[in-house]
């Protein structure tokens, strides 16, 4: 059957009509678009990618292959070359075009650099401006609560469509027992295992977390390798880790550690509580903030430290950050 005929098929499932995937169009300047890959890596400039970065700039992406194939030196090269990441289904604003690349801003990642969201460059092929998700924005959504989860083509969960990250959010179309049908940006409806997600009516309905909730979420990622600019269950940088933990619990904080250190409520070191963010700065703690962790009590923090390391728990005063403590900030209301 010709492709254009397939695009017109409407398939009835669970009492819902599925929107054909092929109606998505190439994005352009001024568009509101959606991330169409499991993890969208946002670059400082267009066309910076190397041959080894091919799995990260394609559609679909292979994030595990990308991160595991790189040597330490190749990962370290990414510092300053990448800006942030965005997850499958996230909304972005298209600001500029340059050939096959576009400059975007990622909504929900606050920064003083761009009012509409965190800016940077991505390949056009990784975005879609299919209006389907916009039309479904008021539906309940499923959010992934495990480090990574599979989306499936079929209700039997026998054919994987895509592995997606923690905190990926997609509109719910139907629930059938322990299976949940969700809308995707450009590929119709797919299935989640209910065990991998939570369903909320809206972001406002996400329960207010306790400090223990935040820490339990952080501990899901112990031993996960660091990735500069990372915000996903495939790899975090330091502020991507704290930003994502809070975001998953319905609290939006700035994307970068230096800006996180300027918001929330200042906390004296002796008054730190579990869930507070702790910041570290150059010049023995008096200079520019360059690192953030989450305080877990008893002088310890959980953090994603650097390219050579993984998410870990350390005693602050026994770590390499002992002499660079800067401040504490509280984003969790009592």
From TrEMBL:
Any one GO molecular function term: cysteine-type peptidase activity
Keyword Ribosomal protein tagged: no
Keywords, ordered alphabetically: Hydrolase, Protease, Signal, Thiol protease
Signal peptide per UniProt: 1-24
InterPro entries recorded: NLP_P60_dom, Papain-like_cys_pep_sf, Peptidase_C40, SH3_16, SH3_YKFC_2nd
An individual GO BP term: proteolysis
All residue ranges annotated as the NlpC/P60 domain in the record: 208-332
Pfam families noted in UniProt: NLPC_P60, SH3_16, SH3_YKFC_2nd
Chaperone found in the keyword field: no
Family, as annotated: Belongs to the peptidase C40 family.
Annotated protein name in UniProt: Polysugar degrading enzyme (Alpha-amylase)
Native source species: Alkalihalophilus pseudofirmus (strain ATCC BAA-2126 / JCM 17055 / OF4) (Bacillus pseudofirmus)
